Amino acid sequence: MTESLIGIFLTAIFIENFVLNQILGLCPFIGVSGRTESAVGMGISVTFVMVMAGVATWAVQNLILVPYSLEYLQTVSFILIIAALVQFVEMVIKKLAPALYKALGVFLPLITTNCAVLGVALINVKRNYGLLESAINALGGGLGFLLALVIMSGIRERLAISEVPVVMRGAPIAFITAGLLATAFMGLSGLI
Amino acid sequence: MNNNSNLLHELTKGIWKENPIFVISLGLCPTIAVTSSMTNAIGMGLSCMFVLVCSNLFISLLRNIVPNEVRIPTFIVVIATFVTILDKMIQAYAPALSASLGIFIPLIVVNCIILGRAEAFACKNSPIASILDGIGMGLGFTLALSLIAFFRELLGDGALFGYKIPFFANDPALIMIMAPGGFIVFGLLIALKRTHDLKGKFTK
Does residue A2 sit in helix, strand or coil? Predict the structure, then answer.
């Protein structure tokens, strides 16, 4: 049991990295990875929302939707839960860390439309994960997102001061960097 | 006459000038995740177009009823409803497509293009203009996905729509249909579009 939990955790971070392997949550990955500081803030808030969403959607799925055979409401109910959670996190950060709130700016409400958050909820349902497994998978997924974001922002800080051809500046070079990063992550697939 | 040309503009702007993928860079995840084959790309593109047209129409009809403060949640519920309908339809009539697109069908809900068009266009314009906008943006999205998928499937699988193409099928570069290939092809294509745009500026 514990072994499989560790397996789920490590797989979610390294092997099935949400950004670089499953290709979820690209908008913030490209949008917020310009500076390491905001990348860390974004990564942590996404991780937090993902774990809470993983637990909340598990509860709704198994305590409400399945017993009353309302599975067709899955998409609608999940997205509403996530939207409410994001509102909540936004209020907490605004109160506790105004500087971070300022730095994250428009990207915080965008966590709602971050497909990694809805993605982890759907993957948990698809794989029939229990409560603990769902939470661990969400935590691993969130940390994997944080890891990819931080590595990317480190590279992009260096890219900002290097000579890149005009047409490649900004998004194109970021995508090509992401491609190389994803290739490197493929090397981890034999880990478990 | 002027009115007609305006409507035509709503239809065509999404295809090139305001292409949702290459110009506005919205809806990136499906762009890279499902473009490993032409069939998936076109299936995804048309699915998004269906949701876009339906949600644009309904949001445009609701635009004078919904209070401003709760418009975003309303939009999301409208979009999620159509995505659910689409999901069930694809499961029933095209199970193979449903299996290969997987969670990316329900994830259309969080595709920024759809919410973006609802917020930027449908909630301010008439239903007919909104439908045309939806069709245009949907077509632009489908074309962009097909273009990316064309290169990826040809180079990575040596095939198009699953049919092997001679010469390319001899020794395909498998990495092109995996995640890294998607990122690299997409990056190069944006650079290519920029080169084209810059050229236009210098010759003018």
Answer: helix
Q: Would the pLDDT of B138 be above 80? A: yes
What pLDDT, in 10s, does the model give residues A5-33?
888 898 888 888 888 888 888 878 887 78
- What are the distances in angstroms from CA B159 to CA A160, B36, B39, B102, B167? 38, 11, 11, 22, 10
Which residue in A has a C-alpha nearest to residue B107's C-alpha?
A115
pLDDT range class, residue B204, cuts 50, 70, 90 = very low
Report the alpha-carbon angle A34-A35-A37, nearest 5: 150
B contacts of A168 (beta carbons < 8 Å): 187, 191
Amino acid letter, B34: V
User: Are residues A27 and B184, on separate chains, in Cβ contact within 8 Å?
Assistant: no
User: Mind telling me how many Å the CA of B1 is from chain A's nearest CA?
Assistant: 39
Q: Vertex A79, ends B30 and A140: CA angle to 5°?
A: 70
Q: A113, A122, A180: which to substitute to probe chain B, counting the most B Cβ within 10 Å? A: A113
Please indicate, yes or no, whether the overall pTM of this predicted structure exceeds 0.95.
no
* Cross-chain Cβ contact A30/B28 below 8 Å: yes
Supply the pLDDT for residue B1.
40
Note the ipTM here.
0.84
- CB distance B80 to B141 below 8 Å: no
Percent of chain A with pLDDT over 70: 94
pLDDT at B142 over 90: yes
- Between CA A185 and CA A107 the distance in angstroms is 26
**Which residue among A21, A76, A172 places its CB closest to the CB of B179?**
A21
What is the CA A137 to chain-centroid distance, rounded?
A: 11
* Residue bearing tokens 């294509």: B189
Q: Among A75, A108, A188, pick the best mutation site for testing chain B contact (most B Cβ within 10 A).
A: A75
